[in-house]
Amino acid sequence: TVVYIDGGACGKLYAYDIVRKEANLVTENACGSAKISKDVVVWTYGSNIYGYDLKKDEIFLITDNGGHPDIYKNKVVWLHAEAGFTEVHLKNLNNGKSKILNRTSEYGITYPAISDKYVIWGKTTSQHVAGVEGVDLKTGEVFEIQEQGSHQNGVIAPTIDGNVAVWMAWRTGNGDIYGAVIDKN
After folding, report:
1. Euclidean distance between CA atoms 54 and 14, whole angstroms
2. What is the mean pLDDT of residues 143-170?
């Protein structure tokens, strides 16, 4: 199953079953990018983050104050900003427990991504300066993946699979692809 938003940045969210060649409407209102892991789809609408269980055909609220969600199995991460702070939150959908993985007023955080061991995000300390940072889900250690550097665009949207992180960066004036293997043994 793949998910997509029909209508541009905001529109109707569909789950498309590749084998059956069948699109099913999940919701009339979704914005940003929808993500899927196993049987759960996550997306944003306004400041709400929703989930949809494909097997149960059920929509549920994950949080009423967040943005830019990502999902891995039963764990969802998102950004939350208020009163000068930006936070990366994690919620376990099985037990409903949430926690803050990183909270800062020192820099901006963009687009968190999650794998089985790590959550990573873009980090921007000032206009046109950016890098990539992450947190070890087992130890809680926050670490640098790509140091801060000159950038045409301070917004980095990394992704991660296992311990391999990739992102596009504008350090050379082009949208170059970078990657790193995270080894936190």
Report:
1. 11
2. 89
